[in-house]
Amino acid sequence: MVDGLLIIDKPAGLTSHDVVARVRRILHERRVGHTGTLDPFATGVLVVLVGRATRLAQFLSGAVKEYEAVIRFGYATDTGDLTGKRLETPDAQNEDGARVQTWSEREIEAALKGLRGAIEQVPPMYSAKKLQGRKLYELARRGLEVERAAVRVTIYELEAVPVNGTLMRHSDEDETCDLSIRVVCSAGTYIRTLAESIGERLGTRAHLAALRRTRAGDFKIEDAMSLEDLKIKMEGEGEATDFILPMDAALSRLPFVHLTADEARKALHGIALRIGDGTGTEWQANEPVRMRDPLGHLIAVGFYDAASRSLHPRVVFSPEK
């Protein structure tokens, strides 16, 4: 039995659930989950939780994400990305009837600038967001469109990225052009919707042509392995613990406390622990705290009660027999 995290570089064409299923087969471990769903066409960092680490998903779901994306200007799709059906709608045209899709660096920056910071997004119909228990994409596939409330997200960084020295790459074949961007954003941000918004600000239709997640919280694409690499490692002579990150790695941003042997026994039974003077002075009310036994092993995550100055074990990792 192995408990910990895998940082997988998800390939295009697989759902996040597909990746989990493959990891289950490779590791021969039933308890496998993930945090931060990626669309099938997208690639990049997918944090996979193994064994008892599946209980840590709640602490990872809100992590900041970083993406590299390609926006294609010229037409929209019904899904907002390259997998959807092209929507034939009139676009801005010049005197010759050709689509106007040339913008200066200053115009592009002006469009991006207005989308940095806290913004509101209406979730796309083709998304897994639920409305009255039904996933929106299930309704969309039936040809239904329902009213969705806007959600507030934060775009921390948004920049255009030149490719081979140029920002806009034109295609004479279908009168479109591409722009590469880098985005750092809060959890729950729809990059497809962001791509459409950038197009609107430039006076044209747009959709997402490519998406790669390069970071999820503290986990970067440089730390990720492919499913094939995982399979090779498992077929080799190494141990799974050689490449699976410990559970503590998922919580590296949380404060921690070392417990005595007696305190550790109580924590494993879910008993709240009174915090001594000088400990937890910087903790916030209801802040999650890592609880370690005398050997430094993570045994629980407790939540701090500021009024009683105590830690209440909420997620307990009892020793497996």
How would you characterize the largest beta sheet?
Answer: 10 strands, mixed
Instruction: Supply the CATH architecture of the largest domain.
Output: 2-Layer Sandwich
The Cα radius of gyration reads 23 Å
Name the CATH homologous superfamily of the largest domain. Pseudouridine synthase
CATH class placement of the largest domain: Alpha Beta
- Number of individual domains: 3
- What percentage of residues falls in helices of 4 or more residues? 10-25%
Keywords:
321 residues; alpha+beta; Pseudouridine synthase; Archaeosine Trna-guanine Transglycosylase, Chain: A, domain 4; five-stranded mixed β-sheet; 32% strand
Structure description:
This protein is α+β, with helices and mostly antiparallel strands. The chain has three domains: 4-61 and 218-248, 2-Layer Sandwich (Pseudouridine synthase); 65-216, 2-Layer Sandwich (Pseudouridine synthase); 254-316, PUA domain (Archaeosine Trna-guanine Transglycosylase, Chain: A, domain 4, Roll). The chain is 18% helix and 32% strand. The chain has seven helices and 19 strands. It has helices at residues 16-27, 57-60, 105-113, 136-141, 191-201, 227-235, 261-268, and strands at residues 4-10, 32-35, 43-50, 65-73, 76-77, 86-87, 117-121, 130-131, 134-135, 151-160, 168-171, 176-185, 206-216, 219-220, 256-258, 273-274, 288-292, 298-305, 310-316. The strands form four sheets. Strands 1, 2, 3, 4, 7, 10, 11, 12, 13 and 14 form a ten-stranded mixed beta sheet that branches. Strands 15-17-18-19-16 form a five-stranded mixed beta sheet. The protein has a two-stranded antiparallel sheet with strand order 5-6. A hairpin with a 4-residue loop joins β18 and β19 (310-316). α1 (16-27) packs parallel to α6 (227-235). The longest helix is centred in the first third of the chain and has 12 residues, at 16-27. It is globular and about 70 Å long. The termini are close together.
